[in-house]
Amino acid sequence: VQLVESGGGLVQSGGSLRLSCSTSGFTLDYYAITWFRQAPGKEREGVSCISGSDGNTAYADSVKGRFTISRNNNKDSVFLEINSAQPEDTAVYYCAASIPVGVAGCSSPNRFFARIYEDWGQGTLVTVSS
Prior knowledge:
Blueprint: E1 2-6, E2 9-12, E3 17-24, E4 32-38, E5 45-51, E6 57-59, E7 67-71, E8 77-82, E9 91-98, H1 99-104, E10 119-120, E11 124-129
Parallel strand pairs: 2-11
Antiparallel strand pairs: 1-3, 3-8, 4-5, 4-9, 5-6, 7-8, 9-10, 9-11
């Protein structure tokens, strides 16, 4: 199982950025893919989840209406569109894969529990300037 994030960078407040998570070595149908982020000095938090099987999605309240998660038709990449970026969105963004969440769905109350995600990418840094 391999996940590789890309697309991070510097964006001005109010701007947009698109992150990509390229997956390999597994069938996305059995997994959920969730984007997490970790800002300096803060705990890792889940921001958005997508089910590999049915494409259902979930968002943290802090990003709802500004972030959009999606996957491609080949089901080997997951994207996170960041719109109306805010300085508090500055963080390292990780994508992670979980079979338990894939089975339970992104409506599961555990969808943003980092400890139940088995596989992680290396992260990509997003910096939002004010």
